[in-house]
Amino acid sequence: MPQRGPLTRPGLLAQFGPIFQMAYLPADFDAAIDYWTRVVGAGPFFVMEGITLSDMTYLGQPSDARFTAAWGYWGDMQIELIRPENDAPSIYTGPYAVTDRLHHVCVEVDDLEPVRAALAQAGATILIEGKVGETGGVIYADAGAGPGGVIEYVKLMEGGAGLFAMMREAARDWDGSDPVRKLG
């Protein structure tokens, strides 16, 4: 059960908006894509391999974590599936690498500085920080829920909103064909 941090008002972290993404770290990445597409009907999934974040830190220390991500939509909810590609320190290895259940949720923001201030006020631990492209950034934080309760705040890079809109639109009338699509 999440512990109450030193909040000065309820919902301190919810002020930045609703979640738009639920993310999972499946033990079997391919089986997870099969489940989400064939059984649930979410998708198609768009896969990007070898992702790294510029200036990435894990618990304040530099990390060169590399991972593959697959994004698909179930209605307006984005489902992200993650596969670590190395053993570098990150939330995809070590104590935060919970598999086969909810790993983290994501909130899109316009500015990460107010998020950083609210996280500090809430007594949260910033797990990961990094740049996303030239214009975006990300913070993953544990606000007291521990592994499986991580919150990601992302400032999308230029073109990111359009990419996600394309994925959401592809899911609207998807007939189940071509369930896995590679991104450059």
UniProtKB/TrEMBL annotation:
Domain VOC as annotated: residue spans: 18-157
Domain of life: Bacteria
PROSITE patterns for this protein: VOC
Pfam families registered for this protein in UniProt: Glyoxalase_4 (PF13669)
Protein name: VOC family protein
